[in-house]
C-alpha cells in the first residue's frame, strides 16, 4: 500500500496524482483535504480537515523552521493525528507527498519512507532544504535538460526528472478548424489568476479581429474536460502552473504564458524556462491591445512541435516507475 498526500491548493496536484496513480501497480490511498469525485484510481481516500481555516494564525513558520504549523489550529492537529492513525493501521510501504514540508517530515518521523514531489522556483529556504534532505526520493515533473536548478544538484543521486505530467499526455491530439478567424483560449485554474472573465471581455472589445474564448476564469465558463477546447484553438493563453503548461504542451498548441505571483517564484521560473528554450511566448502582466496583437503574432510564428521537448508523453508512467522503484528499494526486509 502506498499513501499519496495531495495538497489542496488548486487542482494541479490532484490531476498529477490521478495521472500517476492510474499507472501504479500497487494500490494507493489519497490523503487530502480535497473532495475527489469518482471515478478515481485510489483504493480509498483519507479525508483530512483543512489546516488554514484559523482567523489569525499564530507563529505559522515555527520561527522560520517550517512553512505552515500555526499554534493551536484544530485542523492542523486533527489532520496530523489522522495521518498518524492511518499509518499505524495500514503500515504503508511509502508515502508520496505533493506537496507539504510538514507532512513529509511528519511521516518520515514515523519511520515511513517518503517520496517528495518537488516544484520549480527558488526552493533554497531552510524548510525546503530540510525536506529535500530527509526525502528518500525526489520526483521533478519537468525535463532535466531544460530546467536544472542548482539547488537540486545536492540531491542528484535520489532525484528522477520525469518530464511534465499532463492528464492528457496519452490522448490523441485534435486539430483546430481551418478557414476561420484566429481563435485564442485564455486558460485559468482553481489556483487563481490576476486576470478574470471581465479582463478578457475588455480586451476582446479592443481586439475584435481575434475570437476570444475562456475556461476556468473567475466569472467565466468551466469544464471537467478542457482537452477539446485546448486543441481547438490557434493559441492558448495560460498562467505558468505546471498542469496547465503540461496540458498545452500535450496538445502541441502555440502558447502565451503569463506567470502569476506564487511563493518561491515558481511560475516565473517555469515561464523563463519556456521563453529561453523558445517553447512559448511569455509576458509579465496583462498586455494592452497592441501588446496582445504582437504577442499573438509571435505565438502563431512559433514552431509548436518544440513542445515535444517538454516531455509530456509517458511522463506519468515514468513518475509511477520512479515511485515504485523507490518503494522497492526501501521495502521492509520481510515484506512480500
Percent of residues in beta strands? Answer: 5-15%
Q: How do the strands line up in the largest sheet?
A: 3-2-1-4-5-6-7
Q: Under the CATH scheme, which class of the largest domain?
A: Alpha Beta
Structural class: alpha/beta
CATH architecture of the largest domain: 3-Layer(aba) Sandwich
Structure explained in plain terms:
With 336 residues, the protein is of the alpha/beta class. 32% of the residues lie in helices and 15% in strands. The chain has two domains: 2-165 and 314-329, Rossmann fold (3-Layer(aba) Sandwich); 183-310, 3-Layer(aba) Sandwich (Rossmann fold). It has ten helices and twelve strands. The protein has a seven-stranded parallel sheet with strand order 3-2-1-4-5-6-7, sandwiched between helices. α1 crosses α10 (315-329) and α3 (101-109) packs across α4 (126-134). The chain is globular, with a radius of gyration of 21 Å. The termini are close together.
Layout of SSEs?
Elements: E1 2-6, H1 12-21, E2 28-32, E3 44-47, H2 74-90, E4 94-98, H3 101-109, E5 114-118, H4 126-134, E6 137-140, E7 159-161, E8 183-187, H5 197-206, E9 211-215, H6 227-231, E10 235-238, H7 242-251, E11 255-257, H8 266-276, E12 281-282, H9 289-301, H10 315-329
Parallel strand pairs: 1-2, 1-4, 2-3, 4-5, 5-6, 6-7, 8-9, 8-10, 10-11, 11-12
Helix pairs in contact: 1-10, 3-4
Short recap of the structure:
The protein has 336 residues and is α/β, with parallel strands linked by helices. 32% of the residues lie in helices and 15% in strands.
Amino acid at each position: 500500500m502506498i499513501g499519496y498526500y495531495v495538497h489542496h491548493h488548486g487542482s494541479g496536484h490532484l490531476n498529477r496524482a490521478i495521472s500517476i496513480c492510474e499507472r501504479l501497480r500497487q494500490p494507493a490511498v489519497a490523503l487530502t483535504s480535497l473532495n475527489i469525485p469518482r471515478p478515481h484510481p485510489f483504493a480509498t481516500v483519507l479525508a483530512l480537515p483543512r489546516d488554514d481555516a484559523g482567523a489569525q494564525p499564530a507563529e505559522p513558520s515555527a520561527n522560520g523552521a517550517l512553512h505552515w504549523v500555526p499554534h493551536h489550529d484544530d485542523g492542523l492537529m486533527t489532520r496530523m493525528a489522522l495521518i498518524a492513525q492511518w499509518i499505524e493501521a495500514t503500515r504503508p510501504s511509502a508515502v508520496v507527498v505533493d506537496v507539504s514540508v510538514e507532512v513529509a517530515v511528519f511521516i518520515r518521523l514515523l519511520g515511513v519512507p517518503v517520496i517528495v514531489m518537488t516544484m520549480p522556483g527558488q526552493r533554497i529556504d531552510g524548510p525546503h532544504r530540510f525536506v529535500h534532505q530527509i526525502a528518500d526520493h525526489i520526483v521533478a515533473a519537468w525535463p532535466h535538460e531544460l530546467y536544472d536548478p542548482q539547488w537540486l544538484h545536492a540531491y542528484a543521486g535520489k532525484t528522477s526528472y520525469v518530464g511534465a505530467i499532463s492528464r492528457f499526455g496519452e490522448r490523441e491530439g485534435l486539430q483546430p478548424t481551418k478557414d476561420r478567424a484566429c481563435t485564442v483560449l485564455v486558460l485559468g485554474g482553481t489556483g487563481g489568476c490576476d486576470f478574470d472573465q471581465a479582463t478578457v471581455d475588455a480586451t476582446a472589445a479592443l481586439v475584435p479581429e481575434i475570437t476570444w474564448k475562456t475556461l476556468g476564469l473567475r466569472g467565466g465558463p468551466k469544464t471537467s474536460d478542457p482537452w477539446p477546447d485546448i486543441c481547438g484553438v490557434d493559441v492558448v493563453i495560460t498562467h505558468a502552473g505546471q498542469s496547465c503548461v503540461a496540458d498545452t504542451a500535450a496538445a502541441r498548441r502555440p502558447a502565451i504564458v503569463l506567470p502569476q505571483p506564487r511563493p518561491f517564484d515558481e511560475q516565473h521560473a517555469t515561464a523563463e524556462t519556456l521563453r529561453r528554450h523558445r517553447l512559448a511566448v511569455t509576458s509579465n502582466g496583462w498586455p494592452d491591445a497592441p501588446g496582445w496583437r504582437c504577442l499573438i503574432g509571435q505565438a502563431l510564428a512559433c514552431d509548436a512541435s518544440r513542445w515535444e521537448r517538454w516531455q509530456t508523453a509517458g511522463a506519468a508512467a515514468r513518475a509511477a516507475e520512479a515511485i515504485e522503484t523507490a518503494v522497492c528499494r526501501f521495502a521492509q526486509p520481510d515484506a512480500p
